[in-house]
TrEMBL record:
Cofactor requirements of the protein: a divalent metal cation
Site feature location: Important for substrate specificity: 12, 69, 153
Chief location: cytoplasm
Presence of the UniProt keyword Cytoplasm in the record: yes
InterPro entries given in the database record: ITPase-like_fam, Maf-like
Pfam families the UniProt entry points to: Maf (PF02545)
Record's protein name: 7-methyl-GTP pyrophosphatase
Organism from which the protein derives: Polyangium fumosum
Cellular localisation: Cytoplasm
The protein's role, per its UniProt record: Nucleoside triphosphate pyrophosphatase that hydrolyzes 7-methyl-GTP (m(7)GTP). May have a dual role in cell division arrest and in preventing the incorporation of modified nucleotides into cellular nucleic acids.
Amino acid sequence: MDRLILASTSRFRRALLDRLGLPYEARAPHFDEIPPEGMAPRDVARVFAEGKAKSLEPTPGAWVIGADQVPEFDGRILRKAESQDECRAQLAALAGRTHMLHTAVVLWSASEGRMLGETVTVELTMRPLSAALIDRYVTLDDPVGSAGGYLFEKRGIGLFESVRGGDESAIVGLSLLSLCRLLREAGIEPLDLAR
């Protein structure tokens, strides 16, 4: 059986992968997320996912899962908020507006020299938010370190009016629909591996 290695230590990505019941190990990638100058946000997500997958020490017979998300607002990449004040500022900018979230997932086999991948784009429309509501939300979820200043997988879902495209797992950080398609393309039936 081919081994699966998740190039991430994100608890949210691990929880998503656990839903499939697949045996895997998680390893921390060694990759600096520096977007290439002038590259479209959707392409940056794919480059980051590939970079994370390839940053791990090659393991014979293993398929490495790499994933990354890049939020896009008004044609530019939203950076991860580094403080609660930055979370509040990002939420105030997004309130009542639509932004896109590009989630890339790749499967990399160093043994076979194969890279398979997909990128899913989801449009998220946030409802209008008062400063008091933004402050309450940031206090509850403390979304520091997240782009956009929210955690959709927690209370942040309550900030939105609508979500269009892709699958909900892509918003959390790993498109399970894409991953299952890629595994089948690699000759691995997810249900055959499930425990």
